[in-house]
Amino acid sequence: MTLRLLEGFRAVMQAKTVTAAALVLNVSQPVVTRLIRDLEENIGFSLFVREQGRLKPTAEALILYEEVQRSLISVDRILQSVEMLRDGHQGYLQIAAAPALALSFLPKMMAGFSAQYPGARLTLHMHGSETSLNMVLSGMCDIAVVMLSMRQSGTYGERILSGRMVCVLPVGHRLAGEATVGPWDLKGETFLSHPHVLDTRLQIDALFAAHGIQREMRLESQISYSLIELVAAGAGVALVDPLTATLYRGDGVVFVPFDPIVVNHYSVVTSSERPPSVLQERFIEQLKISLYDTLAPEYRVVGG
Q1: Which residue segments constitute the domains of the chain, with CATH numbers given?
Q2: What is the spatial distance between Cα 133 and Cα 147, in angstroms, rounded to a whole number?
Q3: What is the DSSP string of 207-274?
Q4: Residue 35 and residue 24: Cα distance in Å, rounded?
Q5: Phi and psi at residue 204, in whole multiples of 5°?
Q6: How far apart are CA 203 and CA 165, in angstroms?
Q7: Span 67-95, average pLDDT
Q8: How many CA atoms lie within 13 A of 85 on its CB side?
Q9: For the CA atoms of the chain, what is the radius of gyration?
Q10: Collapsing DSSP states into helix, strand and coil, what is residue 78?
Q11: Structure pTM?
Q12: Residues 256-281: pLDDT tens digits?
């Protein structure tokens, strides 16, 4: 007994005639007749009797139809699921992301993606870049959207875009109207910083040390958004990643490009052990487009 025989039987039961069933199945009438005959031979009893030119189902056919209908509905769901998976419209993605991406950029991007692919289930986890990277490498997540150093990006993922760090100043600060701000401009300023665990902190410390600039260090935060809020509250000045600066909508601060350029690399990481699903490929494609469209042009670094 094949699936095609059962589909032919269901079509006749629902359409009431062989002619109508043939239209439903997009085949000729003889094909439908043969399907019914083959099914009857297969099961060993008749399913229809002909009355006044119409097929009337037997009592056995009515009972069998209930079972066939339940089974074929499940098959239809499987086929529909296969089609949606093939087209990237269904699936489950676990995404781990650094705070600079998870707090402001990804929520809007994922909302748009979910509207476009309503059959997809997405989960966002916020962790540091190293933790997010390890979650993908260990199989706990499908995608990591992170800020990696040039060395790490080449080893573990694909660099999407690079941007220059931005100096955050309170409104009315003496440097607020400058085209750029350098280490020498910040001498004597109270400096709010990322912690030492971040590569950018090490770069910035080395840069200021190379220029012989002493900073008054009081407050630290791993999250750029928190540093901006601290600046707005009058706690000092800070350097933050360009994406957070682009998306910040609060008052009380001014953003000025920092010079010399300190580059942040935004990367996407997937497992090298598992081939990507269609849904995963669609997500990454949309991620790249959205990130490029979002980051302010004046902060982008080409070939960074």
Answers
A1: 3-86 (1.10.10.10), 90-160+265-294 (3.40.190.10), 166-260 (3.40.190.10)
A2: 10
A3: HHHHTT---EEEEE-S-HHHHHHHHHTTS-EEEE-HHHHHH---SSEEEEEBSS--EEEEEEEE-SSS
A4: 14
A5: -65, -45
A6: 11
A7: 68
A8: 11
A9: 31
A10: helix
A11: 0.69
A12: 999 999 999 999 999 888 788 888 89
Residue 15 pLDDT level (bands cut at 50, 70, 90): confident
Tokens of 63: 């009972």
- The amino acid sitting at 207 is L
Both structure tokens of 256: 């000025």
CA distance 146 to 97: 6
**Among residues 248, 204, 223, which one has the least CA distance to residue 128?**
223
Structure tokens at 286: 């949309």
Bridge partners for 267 per DSSP: 146, 159
Q: Do 47 and 14 form a contact (C-beta atoms < 8 A)?
A: no
Residues 105-151 pLDDT 10s: 999 999 999 999 888 889 999 998 889 988 898 888 899 999 876 45
158/142 Cα distance (integer angstroms): 14
Q: Which residue has the tokens 């979002």?
A: 294
Query: Across-strand partners of 124?
Result: 95
Structure-token pair, residue 40: 């009857």
Q: Which two tokens stand for residue 146?
A: 């992170």
